[in-house]
User: Which sequence fits this backbone?
């Protein structure tokens, strides 16, 4: 229900109170996300203040260029170019770090937390890199760090895991966590455009991060998967411990063959836990998902996450994973939690207290090794088309105990280059990588084999 602005005082608890508390909010960064937050708080202020029983003041902001023209109306006197000035301003109750990066943003975040402020952040790269330090600073300073917007934009996945599904242990969380890659793969699939054609369009629409590698090489997905891994298992997996692959080597032909086999290719962030030994594994891989799975139909810039808990079973969450409005929705949700915390009302459990500040308190939440991970695989080989090549290939695979499930060879001219698409029965990451290394050594194999995983998740 949208309350008319005039009804604010008649419905408000302010009628009975002498003076509602004023909450001053500062911004570090007023770009795409920052302006979205500013704009939507201004637009929905009456409802938000009514629900919270507090006055929200958009107090000040640090930007790189205060003279720049901005779509949101903000007086020049409220802008500065020093993030640390905002971070440590004693007048501010909440600081929104919406600048990005891991150097100045880290300094400002830690400075604000040391002053005991509540920091609201969308900065997945910083949280992935320095989560442990940030939570320690929050605990020590008496402030809090809220980060709903850091994973999957508008989907409230952090709340889902920390609050809605708190009763569960999570054996499997996997999802499409990067909107840009999903947009590219969707357009390649639906419109037959090449990777190069699609990336141009994604750049034109402003989807691609300034550092394109974050999106295309899987790092942004990895940052988000690491955060989900921490939420689910209380363990900050280091980025260097995460096998990360992006989408640059996927061809239109791979997408077509995957389709013929009954799959779609999606870039997935996967956090899995072996129920038997409790070992946790975080990885980022372009993956063939069966068309019967809901996530295979999550297209365009949308994100989708499947969360399997030992009590609830599987839940699936879909929504816009990026963009001004979806991300602002998540940031504002954190701001309202921050206000509730400041007012001493019911507030979410602080993330910095989730696991008592220890690296891992879940028994057995140790990291898995590659050899612990098994699955089915898709291998694309470029080979010379001559008698005996298929036999050589299958001999290499047989020697390592990899069983072939299917073979496709698009029609080729004898003596020229041919493509072989192999799928395997269940094997193991370490073995399959050794298989690829051995296949590459064959004279008849012309390029490094291209390996994709086939999702065999039960749910
Ligand atoms: P933008 O590049 O649009 O905005 C960055 C803002 O930070 C700008 O206002 C810029 O100032 C300011 N800024 C940059 N450097 C400095 C500096 N040295 N000193 C002071 N201010 C500075 O980024 P986004 O809004 O897209 O992203 C912000 C954060 O949100 C990032 O962490 C990003 O990863 C995250 N995020 C973004 C999403 C999206 O869809 N865009 C989705 C989910 C998370 P100026 O305006 O003067 O240039
Ligand atoms: N580049 C990111 C994406 C932004 O495409 O999903 C949202 O985190």
Assistant:
């Amino acid at each position: 229900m949208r309350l008319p602005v005039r009804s604010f005082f008649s419905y408000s608890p302010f009628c009975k109170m002498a003076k509602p508390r004023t909450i001053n909010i500062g911004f570090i960064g007023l770009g795409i996300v920052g302006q979205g937050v500013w704009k939507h708080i201004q637009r929905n202020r009456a409802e938000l203040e009514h629900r919270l029983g507090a006055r929200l003041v958009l107090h000040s902001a640090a930007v790189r260029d205060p003279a720049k023209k901005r779509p949101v109306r903000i007086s020049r006197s409220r802008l500065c170019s020093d993030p640390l000035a905002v971070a440590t301003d004693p007048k501010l109750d909440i600081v929104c770090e919406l600048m990005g990066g891991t150097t100045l943003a880290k300094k400002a975040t830690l400075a604000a937390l040391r002053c005991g402020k509540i920091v609201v952040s969308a900065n997945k790269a910083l949280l992935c890199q320095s989560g442990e330090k940030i939570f320690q600073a929050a605990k020590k300073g008496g402030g809090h760090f809220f980060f709903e917007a850091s994973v999957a934009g508008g989907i409230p996945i952090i709340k889902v895991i920390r609050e809605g599904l708190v009763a569960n242990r999570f054996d499997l969380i996997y999802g499409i966590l990067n909107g840009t890659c999903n947009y590219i793969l969707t357009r390649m699939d639906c419109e037959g455009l090449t990777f190069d054609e699609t990336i141009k369009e994604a750049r034109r629409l402003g989807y691609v991060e300034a550092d394109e590698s974050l999106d295309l090489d899987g790092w942004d997905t990895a940052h988000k998967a690491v955060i989900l891994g921490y939420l689910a298992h209380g363990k900050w997996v280091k980025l260097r411990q995460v096998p990360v692959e992006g989408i640059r080597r996927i061809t239109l032909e791979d997408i077509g063959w995957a389709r013929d086999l009954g799959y779609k290719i999606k870039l997935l962030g996967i956090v899995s836990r072996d129920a038997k030994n409790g070992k946790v594994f975080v990885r980022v891989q372009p993956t063939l998902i069966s068309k019967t799975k809901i996530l295979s139909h999550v297209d365009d810039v949308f994100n989708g996450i499947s969360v399997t808990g030992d009590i609830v079973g599987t839940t699936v969450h879909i929504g816009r994973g990026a963009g001004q409005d979806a991300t602002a929705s998540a940031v504002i949700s954190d701001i309202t939690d921050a206000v509730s915390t400041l007012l001493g009302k019911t507030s979410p459990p602080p993330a910095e207290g989730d696991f008592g500040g220890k690296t891992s308190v879940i028994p057995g939440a140790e990291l898995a090794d590659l050899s612990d991970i098994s699955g089915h695989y898709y291998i694309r080989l470029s080979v010379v088309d001559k008698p005996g090549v298929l036999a050589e290939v299958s001999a290499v695979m047989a020697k390592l105990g990899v069983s072939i499930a299917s073979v496709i060879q698009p029609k080729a001219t004898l003596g020229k280059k041919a493509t072989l698409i192999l799928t395997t029965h269940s094997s193991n990451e370490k073995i399959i990588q050794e298989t690829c290394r051995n296949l590459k050594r064959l004279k008849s194999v012309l390029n490094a084999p291209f390996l994709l995983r086939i999702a065999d998740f039960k749910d």
Observations:
- The pocket of NDP (ligand 1) is lined by residues 29-34, 62-65, 68, 81, 83, 98-100, 104, 122-123, 149, 153, 322-323, 327 (CB under 6 Å).
- The chain has three domains: 21-153+328-356, 157-319, 370-454.
- The CA atoms of residues 172 and 457 lie 9 Å apart.
- The first strand starts at residue 21 and ends at 28.
